[in-house]
Amino acid sequence: MAHASRRAELAAAMQSSGAGSAAPLGLGKRCSNLFRDRREAPKRRLDLSSFCHVLDIDTSSGWVDVEGLTTYEELVAHTLPHGVMPAVVPQLKTITVGGAAAGVGIEATSHRQGLVHDTLLALDVLLPDGQVVHCTPDNEYRDLFFGFSNSYGTLGYALRLRLRTLPVKPYVKVAHLPFDAPGAFFSALAGQCQGDADFVDGVVFGAQQQVINRACFVDAAPWLSDYSFEHIYYRSLLDRGVDYLTVQDYIWRWDTDWFWCSKNLHAQQPLVRRLLGRSRLNSRFYTRVMRWNARWGVTRRLARWRGHFTESVIQDVDIPIASASDFLAFLLREIGILPVWICPVRGPAPAAEFTLYPLTPDTLYVNFGFWDVVETTQSYEPGHFNRLVEREVMRLGGIKSLYSDSYFAPDEFAQAYGLAHYQALKARYDPAGRMLGLYEKCVLRA
Ligand SMILES: Cc1cc2nc3c(=O)[nH]c(=O)nc-3n(C[C@H](O)[C@H](O)[C@H](O)COP(=O)(O)OP(=O)(O)OC[C@H]3O[C@@H](n4cnc5c(N)ncnc54)[C@H](O)[C@@H]3O)c2cc1C
Q: Which domain holds residue 78?
């Protein structure tokens, strides 16, 4: 009932605010994990923040009904007491369910479960004209069901989603397997994806240092580690062969240090860590600081003062496993960002083609996550290093997430992201062009 009344209020608000406004619709949201600087063009901001509730959990059928602006932190807090978790939980607590479905969500269960959108059973989408449609894989809105992922709020907003869940046990045992050569590392990664691990991810620390983290649910733990304050998870991968965490601490293991990016805020120094305190060691706080830095250009100015030039390279890319070693060699040679997060992901089942994020069915991909600033003494054209990444990803038959900077030419973009499908979806669901287009939003930063 509460969900229905929130919808009725929204419909009334859209009717009263929309008349006569030519500005495109935009989502009014306080926290975002979008890492591209946007031009502040006028937008008709739609406040959907009240759509942040977990509505229903069915443990026997294995699904949860949740509103679109619910954060994964909230969702996990609701599901764990029922003995289940969403089948894929992106690592950052503030990512919302709608954001992960409209973008591309991934985690260490993805070797079996696929991406967040592969775990979707149904979704209700608020269209730009105020209508709400219920989309499933086999109803009249199946084109939107399969075209919603990677649409980034340009076709409509997810108000309610039904996601698959997995049963959990109280603890997770993590084995850290060391490697000293990319070839052996990626072939062992493929092997682990065939096995019975509940979670598989990895980290590349260098050309001669990689670690696979193979994790399984367990009923009991001989000891428990805590990486939510003084100890740093990614460093433990090199120090410990085996580790035990509660399932909740395992799910949020990367959030405390934003993987390792907290180092840019000096938050890995023991004194700074204590001064910041447990409550600030999380992605929510770091994102705020980063946005402040982007607004005032502090890092860029400091680099210029030292005579250096900077380019932010914050990317997640999916590469077919057969080309993973080649991509890593390129990354180490041309970009040089370390560490790199590695997450295997299963391509979709043949019948489930997500049109705007096309992956080859039943193929194993490797997600490479690399997030840092490339600093050089030589000046390059804007986006030089990001362009190198885009070209290499396309050359190797991979695909890049669009949450950060993109520089694709229109024809490359059309080829990479199923633009023919997108145009058909846009014509059906936003014929008046009330929302921005995908290229305008993701490449032109409108
Ligand atoms: C450093 C970094 C690391 C990341 N690592 C991971 C990772 O490991 N795993 C992972 O899964 N993801 C990761 N992401 C990507 C993240 O999942 C996406 O950026 C996701 O879209 C963010 O969701 P959000 O809820 O924060 O939405 P926002 O950042 O607020 O919005 C993202 C986009 O989605 C649209 N959107 C938001 N909510 C809705 C909705 N309800 N309906 C329709 N459109 C909507 C917005 O309009 C916007 O275009 C990472 C991002 C960053 C910056």
A: 2-168+423-442
Atom of ligand 1 nearest to the CA of 97: 25
Do residues 56 and 35 make contact, with C-beta atoms less than 8 angstroms apart? no
In short, whether 29's Cβ falls inside 6 Å of ligand 1 is yes
- Residue to probe by mutation, ligand 1, list 34, 45, 48, most atoms within 8 Å of CB: 34
- The closest-lying atom of ligand 1 relative to the alpha carbon of residue 151 is 44
Is 59 contained in some domain? yes
Report yes or no: 289 and 267 within 8 Å, Cβ to Cβ: no
87 contacts 345 by C-beta, under 8 angstroms: no
Residues comprising the chain, all counted: 446
CB 162 within 8 A of CB 64: yes
Domain count, the chain: 1
8 A C-beta contact, residue 312 and residue 333: no
Contact assessment for residue 383 and residue 407, using Cβ atoms and an 8 Å cutoff: yes
Residue 203 lies in a domain: no
Q: Looking at ligand 1, which atom is closest to the CA of residue 403?
A: 19
List the chain pLDDT tens, one digit each, 446 residues: 799 999 999 988 887 776 556 788 888 777 777 666 666 677 888 999 999 999 999 999 999 999 999 999 999 999 999 999 999 999 999 999 999 999 999 999 999 999 999 999 999 999 999 999 999 999 999 999 999 999 999 999 999 999 999 999 999 999 999 999 999 999 999 999 999 999 999 999 999 999 999 999 999 999 999 999 999 999 999 999 999 999 999 999 999 999 999 998 889 999 999 999 999 999 888 888 877 777 777 777 777 778 789 999 999 999 999 999 999 999 999 999 999 999 999 999 888 889 999 999 989 999 999 999 999 999 999 999 999 999 999 999 999 999 999 999 999 999 999 899 999 999 999 999 999 999 999 999 88
Q: Is the CB of 252 under 6 A from ligand 1?
A: no
- Quick check: is 430 in a domain? yes
Q: What are phi and psi of 12, to 5 degrees?
A: -65, -40
Write the CATH number for 95: 3.30.465.10
How far away, in angstroms, is 434 Cα from ligand 1 center? Answer: 21
Cα of 37 from ligand 1 centre, angstroms: 14
| Threshold 0.85, pTM exceeds | yes
How far, in Å, from the CA of 38 to the mean position of ligand 1? 15
* Contact 99 CB / ligand 1 (< 6 Å): yes
- The answer to whether residue 427 sits within a structural domain is yes
Of ligand 1's atoms, which has the minimum distance to the CA of residue 258? 1
